[in-house]
Specification:
Layout: E1 11-16, E2 24-28, E3 31-35, E4 43-48, H1 53-64, E5 72-75, E6 78-87, E7 94-99, E8 107-112, E9 115-123, E10 126-136, E11 139-145, E12 153-161, E13 164-165, E14 168-169, E15 174-178, E16 186-190
Antiparallel strand pairs: 1-2, 2-3, 3-4, 5-6, 6-7, 7-8, 9-10, 10-11, 11-12, 13-14, 15-16
């Protein structure tokens, strides 16, 4: 039985730590929550927008759900180092945020207002290498961080247009995958 789950609306992503399976993070509509007992109880990290929850709920119902807290990933060797996507309900800005203390203090890497983060992943053997795939200006871009997610470089050569179908944009998700068996090969899946 799961106890103490905050009011959260949609749960977008759940991630267990490889280094400590008792540590679990979840990206929910109103913030990032953390469990230290393998998911039995949960508490908000300081990334808590529950005070804006009614506004977020209305926005997500009308189509902005993917701009909220979509993804969270945990560094393979340090369960206190996490990366997450963040939507600011006050100004609609989208960011990738980083915490190295389990969600108490966050660094923010701003992406802008017309952006959508589809996925982000740590390299399976290197906590300093983080990948992200984003939609920006009707193109899909790949981002890479070599400093553990504090900054991201955009490879302008590795972009492609968003798929369009007869006067309407198709709802598409892009997912990243990287395997410890071949950690320098990054795959991107589109559905």
């Amino acid at each position: 039985v799961i106890k103490n789950i905050p009011i959260c609306g949609v749960t977008n992503h759940i991630e267990f730590s490889e280094a400590n399976p008792n540590i679990v993070y979840a990206a929910i509509e109103s913030g990032i929550i953390k469990s230290q007992d393998a998911g039995s109880t949960w508490k908000y990290t300081t990334m808590d927008n529950s005070k804006y929850y009614p506004k977020i709920c209305v926005q997500s119902f009308w189509g902005n759900i993917y701009k909220l807290y979509n993804y969270v990933d945990i560094a393979p060797s340090n369960p206190e180092h996490i990366e997450a996507t963040h939507f600011n309900p006050l100004d609609s800005a989208v960011s990738i945020v980083k915490s190295t203390d389990g969600g108490k203090i966050w660094e923010v890497f701003e992406l802008g207002k017309d952006c959508w983060v589809h996925d982000l992943k740590f390299h399976p053997n290197n906590d300093q290498l983080v990948y992200a795939v984003i939609k920006l200006d009707n193109h899909i871009h790949f981002l890479r961080s070599d400093d553990g997610g504090s900054t991201f470089a955009q490879d302008l050569k590795n972009k492609f247009p968003v798929y369009e179908q007869k006067h309407r944009v198709r709802a598409v998700r892009y997912k990243l995958a990287v395997t410890p068996a071949n950690p320098d090969f990054l795959a991107c899946y589109m559905n």
